[in-house]
Amino acid sequence: MAQLSNELFQLLNGQKLAAKRHEAMMLQTVTEDGWPHTAMISAGEILALNDTDVRLALWQGTTTTANITRTGRALFVTWWKGKAHYVRLSLTKLPDLKDAKYPRARFAGTVKSAREDTAKYADIIAGVQIELKDEDSVLRRWEETLEELQK
């Protein structure tokens, strides 16, 4: 059975968000006309419940949300601890929360494949990194979003 590595689980476990605030990850889906579509997500929008089950909180009305709702699939890509990680997810939409603080579409996912990539001739020293504009507000939103993903 496919599963997240322990290193990747530590990134996505919903803990110590402030230490992960600069990490941006890619979530790739396929549009209706068959083209790849890439969105950026953060550690405050994806939660690993364990090494095989994840949850996503995506903004409603986006292309990514529509693609996942239609196909039930996504490819999660990140760079962490010197490795590139590629994780195929099978996803189903969760019911909307009536008391949700933010308009998010929530998805439950299962890891279908997980691959780590390194190169013998080079070290991966960074992936996509971000600087939050209103750090306290964003970290608070992430914490609240991850709490809602556990429901």
UniProtKB/TrEMBL annotation:
Record domain Pyridoxamine 5'-phosphate oxidase N-terminal: where = 20-123
What's one Pfam family here?
PNPOx_N
Listed SUPFAM superfamilies: FMN-binding split barrel (SSF50475)
User: Which residue spans traverse the membrane?
Assistant: none
Q: Which InterPro entries match?
A: Pyridox_Oxase_N, Split_barrel_FMN-bd
- Identify this protein by name: Pyridoxamine 5'-phosphate oxidase N-terminal domain-containing protein
Which organism is the protein's source? Bacillus swezeyi
Lineage of source species: Bacteria, Bacillati, Bacillota, Bacilli, Bacillales
